[in-house]
Specification:
By secondary structure, the chain is of the alpha+beta class. It is built from nine helices and seven strands. One of its GO terms (molecular function) is phosphorelay sensor kinase activity.
Length: 327
Amino acid sequence: MHTASLYMLGFSLQVAATDALISNVLLLLASLVVSNTLRFYQPGKAQYLNVVAWCVLLAGMWLFLSRWILLYILHSEAVYARVLNNSLLVRGSIGFLLICGTALISMLWYTQQEQKANEARKQDAEKLAREAELFNLRQQLQPHFLFNSLNSISALIGRRPEEARTMIYQLSDFLRGTLRKVENEVVSLEEEFQHLQLYLDIEKVRFGHRLITKIVLEENCGKLVLPAMLLQPLVENAIKFGLYDTTGQVTISIEARCVDRYLVIVIRNPYDVHTVRPKSGTGFGITGIKRRLYLLFARTDLLETQGENDIFTTTVKIPQNDKGNIN
């Protein structure tokens, strides 16, 4: 367009192309200078006048250099030199506006990139904090069970050493599986039930014939996934409030089924209405699982507890996507 305008004014194609080339190359260099400056210097609201002053300075330098170079190259074109000198104000204004436009676009671009970087850092920090809290919650669940198991082993050593030895082996297998699961955020329901069975084997040694478990896994649900080590604290809570206040047999039922893109797990245990308050939920296990589910899914409705007819029911819902992974 620059070349065409000068050509239409009657100048030769060589003169028009030379003017356009020199002017635009120098203008590009001035624009790159202001853009690169704003890459490392983002002005505050009270410093925008500094940017305008910088654009005025660059426009003046561009106008001076382009005029000097063009007159040096095209010194034999007297008419062109007169037109060039008469158009300096217009050229300077256009150059200033183009450089300011480049500065404005650069500020918007680099501000947007900085905001994206800050948001990414914020998300990374929140993710690290969330993972740290999740790890802390998972670690808090283990000592309670471990202390109980060690106390039971201590009690069995004198009276029933073979059962104590068996329980030590089972506890070792359970803790080894727990260490492997620490690195996994989610596991399949089948894997979670296998790990849960190790825990139940230990508890059956502790409570003997008093503990009866009933596990029902709906067909085609085994491949669905859930957060690792989610069920053990809930079952531990059910055993605690189902067996601690009774001397007879107690049945703990665990049922898993698929319902509308959810993996639904229901745990039931009997309870004594005179010694516990099941409607509000009991123990660190339920509180920790609620917090963990909130951190993973940002929802507070995925764990429900209910006490009715001397049966305490804990229901956990794990959202699943179309590929069988948690949402």
